[in-house]
Fold these 3 entries.
Entry 1:
Amino acid sequence: MNTADTVQPRYRWLADIIRDTIDRGVLTDNQALPPERELAERYEVSRDTVRKAVRFMEERGIIYSDHGRGTFVSPAIVRGTTRFIDSFSQDTGNRGGVPGQRILAIETVGASMAIANLLNLDAGAPLVRVRRIRLIDDAPVGLHDAYLVLPRGARISRSQIEKAGSLYKLLTAEFAFEPAEAVENLCAGAADGDDAQLLDIGVGDPLLVCERITLSDRRQPIEYCLMKYVSTYRYRTRIAKHSGGMN
């Protein structure tokens, strides 16, 4: 499969259009979205497509629903702190920076016992490893070391990643890689010699360390990624109250 053959789901297309109207200020903070029927007629889609688009945007904090009143645009502070899988480039752009990357390694490796356990694989199972320095305005701010579950024999190249601009975008186009959600663990760490050299910091300098396990749309583990960020990088997220209540 190549990029040209990949067709975006209709609900994602509609969600992108609605998000664009919000970004352009056509719809503003806490303003109600048009009714479901009106959106379906305006964009010539089914009401089921509208419902899927609305649910997709709600999950990402772009809009929110108030039972009995309707669906509304989330305040900018909420939209700006909602994280997406592989959102480094988008998040950096939203902050006014220019995202970038330096690819250090692309290789096929056998899964270690620890990573195999996290990904529900046998030790030694083949994984595609992509290791990169992440940049903001050409300055190194993080290291991403990703281990990907792809079809046996799958190959990706440096030029493909650079052309696509997004690793996930490339993987979705080439291998129907469908990340749906992720679990992350955060902790503090200290830079070792390799970290210090790659990130242009001192040995022992503080790092924000994040381990991510990404799940497919069928909730199967498809990636383990170890991410390390310099202390000046700000990691933002949104926390929502569970619908069942809070003790």
Note: The longest strand covers residues 99-110.
Entry 2:
Amino acid sequence: MLSEKYRCAVIISRAPIIQFGLGAIMAQSFCEYEIIYCTTPEEVTLSLLQHANVIIVDLTNDLRQARSACKKYYSVMMQSIDIHWVFIVPLPIYPLAVELLLRSESTLLSSMEPVDGIINAVRSGNRRAEIISRSLLSGNPYDEEEASPPALSLTYSERQVLRLLGKGWGINQIASMLKKSNKTVSAQKNSAMRRLTLRSNAELYAWINSSDGAKILNLNPTYGEDRQWKKADQEDTLPLLSDAP
């Protein structure tokens, strides 16, 4: 039974040792939290969502069913907007996590995140300015192996945001049209810039207006492509999951 005296933190992991480790971090640094342990998203009931303040999800054991796991967590997230979600994400499913789990109330951390990073994420809550940790971004293999990563590595959401920017839309307009927060749209824009190794807005707009950028983003489409993008612009990001890397 959940106590009314404490705040509630839910830890979800299939690995008992990770549950124990995350629980120890919470117990040592956030003694005011009551800790509830789950192994799957199906165990997160509506009653638990009503009491939870933060939910920490370990995705390191979901590599083989990453898409299914992310879709399930997305579905659970939609049932409450007041909870801070902290996802511990291994690099192979980082693009999918950005596509499905990156929202104004969520934080993405690396599976190699130092303890201080986890503590700071929980302490900052869902008002955290940096919702993708530097440890996760710096661990992106594209940053180390290629000076100019392939543009096709962009997720659907990132390409959608860049295309709308290229058409003259502002962050506020994009957020309103896509039914996302300004924070999420800005994060997807910044994530795309890091993938493309672009360091400023000037470089971003130069790439968008380049022949490669226009081709990747379909900014100079044929009639058929234009119809496809107009349809995509009117949809949320979920229906086109197959477009995610």
Note: Residues 1-5, 141-151, 221-245 have pLDDT under 50 and may be disordered.
Entry 3:
Amino acid sequence: MPLIPEEPQIHESAQGPRVTPAAGRTAPTPRPVPGPRSAATPRPGRPGPGPARPAPPAQRPHSTSGQSQAARSKTRSAPQFQLIPASAGSALDAADEAVDLLLDSGRAPGDILVITTGERHPWAVHELSFGEAAYWAQHDAGDDVFFADAVAADRVKARPVVIVAVNGGVDDATAHALPLARERAGALLVVCGEPQRINAVLGAGV
């Protein structure tokens, strides 16, 4: 069912004030440090994978948590949806701004997951430079905003807020990321991208 673009607002009925990101920004200036400003300890000073405690794949409770999550997804109400119009080139920047607005409105960093359909977010590139184990240890810790691409999104756990940056990639990646993001979002789903492309992908059978 096609989605109808909404005004570029990030809002939640029970969380914080209504916030409105700037929709028509041009030539966004890249941040000097990967990742959003966070209320938690900033990422750039992290010394690397040394102190991280990666969880072995065998310890991940796939079957038990998967069944309970599937059961919850059938009974819980659908998350609120917000579409922020943005070109493929500015979708990542729009997602970063949405993260900042949510943090400023009182959301905890660990509540937010960001999925990209094209190039990885600079934060993900930075953390993956220390190795996959350290990267996924950050995810399992759940104490900060986490960034994953559409391929890795199958492995992420649900969070209250999920933001999808449709920043390129093939339509198959978008078609995979959007329904997955809807499953992972507990309260709010934000999609930053070109409305026509998103509606076309959703109308293709999502």
Note: The longest strand covers residues 185-193.
